[in-house]
Amino acid sequence: MEQYKSTERKCDMEQAVKDVLSGMSKSNLLEKHGSGVVMNKRKIDEYAHDIKEESAKKARYESHVNMEFRQWQKVMELKEKQNDILWRAY
């Protein structure tokens, strides 16, 4: 029993998810994190999927915001130029 406990390794879930996201193979995951990867495989895969989904959603949102911001920024620049001209006249 004592010998079994010494070979048992805990699985660092956060690091395992990062390794899955980086594309580490299953055999390398098992070697690095031990049997905890097998026991928590479903959770690790779900977390990795959620992170991928969130990053894709964030990228889409940022690209959309940047497009809208550029148009808005052009209008504001024109208005600021008009205001500068009006203030200089006084």
Question: What does the model show?
Answer:
With 90 residues, the chain is mainly alpha-helical. The chain has one domain. The protein has helices at residues 2-7, 13-22, 26-33, 36-39, 41-89. Helix 2 (13-22) packs across helix 5 (41-89). It is rod-shaped. Residues 1-7 have low confidence and may be disordered.
Question: What's a quick, concise take on this entry?
Answer:
This protein is mainly α and 90 residues long.
Describe the SSE topology.
Layout: H1 2-7, H2 13-22, H3 26-33, H4 36-39, H5 41-89
Helix pairs in contact: 2-5
SSE sequence, one letter per element? HHHHH
Tally of individual domains? 1
- Secondary structure class reads mainly alpha
Roughly what is the average pLDDT, rounded to an integer? 80
Largest sheet: none
Highlighted features:
0% strand; 90 residues; mainly alpha; disordered N terminus; 5 helices; single chain
